[in-house]
Amino acid sequence: MKALFLPAVAILNRVRYTTKFLLIGIITALVCVLLVAQIYSEGSAFVENARLEKDGLVVLEDMMGALGLMQQHRGMTAGLKGGDSSLAAKVQAKADALDQAMAKVDASMAGPGAAFGLQARWTAIKADWAPLKAGRPEGRHENFAAHTALVSKTLALMEAVANASHLSADPDVSAANLIRVLVSDAPEMTERLGRLRGYGTGIVARGMMTAEEHDVLIAHLAQLDLTKTNIVTRLERATEASPDLKPLLDGAIGDVNAGYEQLDTLARQDLLGGAFSIKPAEFFDVGTKAIAGIVHHLDATIRPTLRARIDARTDRASTRLTGLIVLSAVAACVVIYLMTGMYYSIVGSVHELTEGAERLASGDYTSRVEFSARDELAEVADRFNAMSASLRTIIGQVKQTAAELSTAAARMTKSASEVASGSERQSESATSMAAAIEQMTVGIDEISRNAVAAADRSKASGALASEGGDVVRKSVAEMERIADSVNATATVIRDLGEQSGRISTMVSSISEIAEQTNLLALNAAIEAARAGESGRGFAVVADEVRKLAERTAQATHEITDMVEAIQTGTDKAVVTMESGVEQVRLGVDLTIRAGQSMDEINDGASSVVEFVADISHSLREQSSASTEIAQNVEAIAQMAESNSAAVRGTANTAAELERMANTLRDEVSRFRV
Fold this sequence. Notes:
This protein is mainly α. The protein folds into 2 domains: 62-316, Up-down Bundle (Formate dehydrogenase/DMSO reductase fold); 378-668, Methyl-accepting chemotaxis protein (Helix Hairpins, Orthogonal Bundle). It contains 11 helices and no strands. The longest helix is centred in the C-terminal third of the chain and has 156 residues, at 376-531. The mean pLDDT is 74.
């Protein structure tokens, strides 16, 4: 964040406070002027807009009067063209009144409405009025259409006046709804009433109505109802936004509804019903009354209310503008006053600091900076006073130190002579010590050589012990493999004995089968003998079976004998193998203990080697230390000689130091502490 202000800091650091405050004042003044100008511009635009709205109301008021006369002239002309000659004088009177109303519009368009730039359109409307005033065109429908076109142009011009005078863009909700009633809805309502009045007057004057006229009349009534609803809705919205208008606008809403309902009822009952009992002038007067009620409230209620609201808003805007300008001027004066006071405050503070700094520069450290402000510069003044106190203390100490330094320099001169004498004696003692240490170094070197020889012999013994240990470990491994082989053989022989036992069992089973077979053969021979000649062949077979059973019994007996012999030998082999395994196990244990003994011998030899190596290393270090001591003693001797020379120079330096101490005491004596 600080880097953002570096350019401004760099600029302000190069100018004096007068320039700084002048620059800030100019910028502040420019900002104030711009703000005031903006406020004045917006306020003036608001006031000017209100003035245009009021000018638009003036022009619209005159145009509304002319519009009403146009509509009345259209209705009377329609009655006259329909056959009611009694309306001729009234038509001419309305034409004269319309001329006068147009003259008033001319004046307002040339005066308040001159800024709207709509004179050309008004001139065109007046040109369209000229033939209508003379009664052209002659046809009733054509004349009525020409009047309607003239009224439509006037309504469009009124809308243009509302736009040019900014009435259409009024920000007040209530005023905006009243303006729409004044500019659009009410003129449209009067136009539709005027059309219905003129159309109905012509029908009544003829005493008949075609089907087309019947449909047109129904359309007029429907459009009139929609327009009336729009007026009532906008007036109600205005009262909702501004409840204070309710007493005024409720009467207007009631009159609009009453006038519309009277004309609507008359048109539906007398015209659409086909009675045609009313006279044309009476029907015209009912329509005129409805229109007059609307125009009355435009002139007596809506237009004055709009003008009053615009005037009140203009007054508030003017008051607000004046207040803002005065407030801006007061704020500018306060800023100028405060900035001027700030300038004098800072310049005064800087002057006080300058005076205090000048007293300190002159050597007066007994004074303090008297500072009247209590801002950040007060901290600077406090630091000046703290610095002055610190310097006062330091200078007092310097004075005291200068005196003590002079005394110490005299004592130093005396001590230097004594040190020189002691340095000479020290040099002689150091030379004798160096010779003694040289002899001790020679003895240590001889001991170190013997220790190296002992270390070599110890290493050889350790190597032999290590080799013996390896041999014993190999023997142990071989003995363990032999023991494993013997165990495996004993296991195999034991399994052989078990197999022999199973063979013996199987042989017993075969022997029993052979005996049973022999018995069966004997029984078969007996049965064959009983059978006589027919059983001779069977007897031969039985005899062969008996002989086979006898040989089988003999073979099984021999097998039994052999199996028993094998089992006996197997048992003896198993016992012998187990004894051998036990002897191998004892040999393995003895070999393992021998290996452990060889390991202990090897460890002892390694320890001896380490001890001898430590002794040798210590002797080497002692030899190096003795050599270094001898060198240091030699250096001490040389230093003692140099020290003796330096001490003699120190005596001279002490004398010079005493002179400088006196000079320092004279210099600091000018400071007041």
